[in-house]
Design a protein that fits this description.
single chain; alpha+beta; three-stranded antiparallel beta sheet; five-stranded antiparallel beta sheet; Alpha-Beta Plaits
């Protein structure tokens, strides 16, 4: 009976405090998560006013920074709650300093990769190498195919990228050796148009210039283009064909959409003018496939 009374006394005293601490930490962590999501949603709404608009570099950085601060605040809340719970349970917290130091040293040697990931993530965010919504190509240690897609999440430890096929690729920040940002400030759509070597190149250039002017006048394409597409002229020479290059400066991340639209316009314009596009050979087809895969 005395033990039962002692248990009731403990539950009404320190036990209740432990429950309140745990409940309060969970509620506070959920509030931080809710507030962080509200802030990031507001940043996204203010940064994107439609499909033709893209996030500014400052908005991307604010979004990534908010996510990191949210994660750090939740970790801090639970860490403080653990110490308070241990103190209420009668565990001498000061007596855990020495074992914690030894444990920290052991974890430091055993978790070097995690520490490296966190440090790399810190520099990625502070240097604004990329942020939420950027289209990137990430090369990791050991080579292999790079992870290409849209950045969906950046934390101090990992970067999550959504590939064009819908897969989510998680890359530890410490394993990143090279990042190609395809949506920084502005982008360039490059379209190589193959034409038979017997065709008048000057006529082809004029058709392509008119295609560029029409695209720049199109209300659907105008918001994506920073200036009218430019015909650079003959890029490569072959026995049966030549490649004429068209270049257009676009909004960040919109180069693929602009490139597809320009190719469709070129096909229609050539068909209307009676210009035939040579059929690709097996070698050219393989090269074109590689170019398309790299563009994705």
């Amino acid at each position: 009976m005395d033990a039962f009374d002692d248990l009731l006394d403990w539950l009404s005293g320190r036990g209740l405090e432990v429950v309140l601490i745990i409940l309060g930490s969970v509620l506070l962590a959920r509030f931080v998560s809710w507030a962080g999501n509200r802030i990031t949603d507001r940043i996204d709404r203010n940064a994107t006013g439609g499909d033709a608009l893209v996030r500014s570099e400052a908005a991307k950085h604010r979004h990534s920074l908010t996510q990191v601060l949210q994660w750090a605040a939740i970790v801090l809340i639970y860490s403080i709650a653990v110490f308070f719970v241990l103190d209420r349970l009668g565990v001498p917290v000061t007596g855990l300093v020495a074992p914690a130091t030894v444990l920290g040293v052991g974890l430091g040697f055993g978790a070097q990769r995690i520490v490296g990931d966190v440090l790399a993530g810190f520099f990625i965010i502070t240097e604004r190498q990329y942020g939420f919504g950027d289209v990137v190509s990430i090369q990791v240690v050991g080579g292999g195919d790079p992870a290409t897609g849209t950045v969906e999440d950046v934390t101090l430890r990992v970067t999550r990228v959504r590939s064009p096929n819908g897969e989510v690729v998680t890359v530890p920040n410490g394993q990143i050796v090279k990042v190609v940002n395809l949506s920084r400030d502005w982008a360039r759509a490059v379209v190589d148009v193959p034409v038979p070597s017997t065709v008048d190149v000057n006529r082809v250039n004029e058709i392509l210039r008119e295609v560029g002017r029409e695209a720049f006048r199109d209300p659907g394409m105008r918001p994506l283009l920073l200036d009218p597409p430019t015909v650079m002229g003959v890029e490569t020479l072959g026995l049966d064909e030549v490649n004429v290059r068209v270049v257009a400066r676009t909004l960040p991340g919109k180069q693929f959409e602009v490139g597809r639209d320009l190719r469709a316009r070129v096909v229609l314009a050539f068909r209307a003018q009676g210009v035939q596009v040579p059929a690709p050979t097996a070698h050219d087809g393989d090269a074109a496939t590689k170019v398309q895969e790299s563009a994705r």
